[in-house]
Amino acid sequence: MPVRLLGTVLQTLGMELIVLGYVSYMAELWVRYKWRGDEETPPRLVVAVADLTRASTHASPLIALTISGILLVALGAALRRLDTEG
Q: 72 by DSSP, 3-state: which?
């Protein structure tokens, strides 16, 4: 049971990481090109996540966080399958 729960948690975190990758990439584009559609700026924390991701991986936040999320989802699925087989 704990392995199955860990798999579910990892899958959930993976999905959230994929969404965070998209949101931080959009925030980065917003800041870079100074879009002023509705005069609301993205939260500073999201922009900081995008900057940190780009600095640490030298890749777009969309790519880096999405790949990390996919790996977490796959690892979670493997753990859940391992628990049902054992």
A: helix
